[in-house]
Amino acid sequence: MRPADAVQTLSTHWPGLYAGGQLRPLAIGVREQLFADAERRALPLSKKVIRRCLKTLTRTETYLSGLTAGVACYNADGSVESLIPPERERAATAKLARIQADKPKKQAAKAPATDEKKEH
Question: Which CATH architecture has domain 3-119?
Answer without folding.
Answer: Orthogonal Bundle (1.10)
